[in-house]
């Protein structure tokens, strides 16, 4: 091509051909590109061979160690792992090269040192998996990812201010004690917002008990019950319709 070349000189020709001057003749051959990885990137502009300096995913070049989600799945996470691969089968105890460090076969290490992603060297390849997270039983608005945590946790629900006891929205403050209508039943509003109720057992009995409205157990202390009317101990009275009869309430209740 009108350019003199010294014997033994080598140069590149368009089309990724390597040429040499040997014995007055020009010998050219296509460049052979030994690939040192399993998923090489496309050949950069101005170069002849592909590169193993990153990952190509959905047409986007990712740097080594990049963590990203594919466009078609929010629940899938991918990691760009750039480890040299030989075209020949590697022995099982082969070491792994990852981010400038070498790991022995079977060794485990954490991606970015956060403990959320565990990687293991297997036969010259690095396999990474994310720490499993438990299934939460709280609604999404109560889920929280704290600093340094790998998994979401449930926030503590706000402390209740009181107890709702019916559909009308009646609320009792915590610690409030009340009777729901039966004087023998007492309820209390507990600290967790629940209502606890207990009934009172009346153990005292007498032949003529005195029932006081709003009082659970009958009164058998010293008063009398005469035809549904309370008579104070020691009181003398004339029964209705019996003007010649005098009655007195005695301590014995008879």
TrEMBL record:
<dbReference type="GO" id="GO:0098586">
    <property type="term" value="P:cellular response to virus"/>
</dbReference>
<dbReference type="GO" id="GO:0005576">
    <property type="term" value="C:extracellular region"/>
</dbReference>
<dbReference type="Pfam" id="PF23334">
    <property type="entry name" value="VWC2L_2nd"/>
</dbReference>
<feature type="domain" description="VWFC">
    <location>
        <begin position="94"/>
        <end position="155"/>
    </location>
</feature>
<protein>
    <submittedName>
        <fullName>VWCE protein</fullName>
    </submittedName>
</protein>
<feature type="domain" description="VWFC">
    <location>
        <begin position="1"/>
        <end position="53"/>
    </location>
</feature>
<keyword id="KW-0964">Secreted</keyword>
<keyword id="KW-0325">Glycoprotein</keyword>
<dbReference type="InterPro" id="IPR001007">
    <property type="entry name" value="VWF_dom"/>
</dbReference>
<dbReference type="InterPro" id="IPR052080">
    <property type="entry name" value="vWF_C/EGF_Fibrillin"/>
</dbReference>
<dbReference type="Pfam" id="PF00093">
    <property type="entry name" value="VWC"/>
</dbReference>
<dbReference type="GO" id="GO:0005737">
    <property type="term" value="C:cytoplasm"/>
</dbReference>
<keyword id="KW-0732">Signal</keyword>
<feature type="domain" description="VWFC">
    <location>
        <begin position="161"/>
        <end position="221"/>
    </location>
</feature>
